[in-house]
Amino acid sequence: MVEQHYLNNTWIEISESAYEHNLKFFRKLIGEKTELSVVVKANAYGHGWQSIARLAMKHGADSFCVHSIDEALRLRRAGFHQPILIMGHIPLNRLEEAVQEKFRIVVFNRETVERLDQITTRLSALARIHLKLETGTYRQGIDASELDWYITKLKNTPRVVLEAVYTHFANIEDTTNHDYANFQKYTFNQMVKIIKDSGFPILKRHIACTAAILLFPDTHMDMVRLGIGQYGLWPSRETFESYKKNGEKNGEKLLLPVLTWKARITQLKWVDAEHTIGYGRTFKTTRKTRIAVIPVGYSDGYDRGLSNQGYVLVHGKRAPVRGRVCMNLMMVDVTDIPKVKLEDEVVLIGNQGKEQITADELANWSGTINYEIVSRINSDIPRIIVK
């Protein structure tokens, strides 16, 4: 049988051993009693939701977090029966689906509670909600001034069950000064106290993203939402530096990148000196140059900002991107790499020989973050699990 990647010009390899390593590392940090919920929104940050969901359940995750009801339904229909938290807004006319599938429903709008009350009464069903508290991110969440309304309403809607409360940090990743994160923790705890004192048996509290799991053990609480870290990527350089300040000297080896992005050369050509390459003629050769055409472009998720900025690996050596990244193609300079031939393997993200190109490097070259680099990789590109 022909292996799948031999049938494609570009593909993603997902390392099971790296994923297992990362998940076990975070499990050790939080302990066995804290629920480990893995965030698989945005196609598992570009890693492929089905592949990651299977690996997550195989290697000890307890539940899933997604953004939309459609992401949640895909997991259910693929046979994943674990708890699924939908963190984004569910259209009011689709709340009945969420109730029937027993999804965990995030609430930050009054209309959601009112509609859930109607649905659960009519169906004689329960809706388990996670109330999102606004502690200073000013994105989704209910303000402290709104708590009285929600407390009163939920006391009179017995089928809408308050399963958990949670919040999200605004500035825990992009700084080594965590005063604002501590302020948010304080605000969260004060709001939780108000809810508890009102007579609600809150079963779960969750506040920790990857950075919080790494830096603040007091945020582990009853559940954590593990996002970027499960994929072997640090949330930011600042998080890495903060973690090292806590006494960890070998931080580089703690997380193992799970994703490798590969392609193959689809044409080779010699270009004479003083000729230009690609749209806009943005690169002019200064010598006779050997160009390799790679069948990956911005429609595949390779940032156009990497035009004349990025590198790929060919035969374990860095080959610079020449000219503009096109919709489906890019050109790289392999003049100084001997014996390159048609369909040789190219690495866009990952290791080849003794060299490595990381998602963080691509992010630095294109002026963005590693989250965006991996999340925007086209979902049509095959994801293949390797050891």
The name of the CATH topology of the largest domain is TIM Barrel
Strand content: 15-25%
| Rounded Rg | 24 Å
Overall shape: it is: elongated
Describe the largest sheet.
8 strands, parallel, barrel
Helix content: 25-40%
Q: What would you give as the CATH superfamily of the largest domain?
A: Alanine racemase
Structural category is alpha/beta
CATH class of the largest domain: Alpha Beta
Low-confidence stretches: none
**CATH architecture classification of the largest domain:** Alpha-Beta Barrel
Mean pLDDT: 96
Give the tally of structural domains. Answer: 2
First-residue to last-residue Cα separation: 18 Å
Set out the fold topology:
Elements: E1 10-15, H1 16-30, E2 35-39, H2 41-45, H3 49-58, E3 63-66, H4 69-77, E4 84-86, H5 95-100, E5 104-107, H6 110-123, E6 127-132, H7 147-155, E7 160-166, H8 179-197, E8 204-208, H9 210-215, E9 223-226, H10 237-245, E10 259-264, E11 267-271, E12 276-277, E13 283-284, E14 289-294, E15 311-314, E16 317-320, E17 330-333, E18 345-352, E19 355-357, H11 359-366, H12 370-375, E20 383-386
Parallel strand pairs: 1-20, 2-3, 2-9, 3-4, 4-5, 5-6, 6-7, 7-8, 8-9
Antiparallel strand pairs: 1-10, 10-18, 11-14, 12-13, 14-17, 15-16, 15-18, 18-19
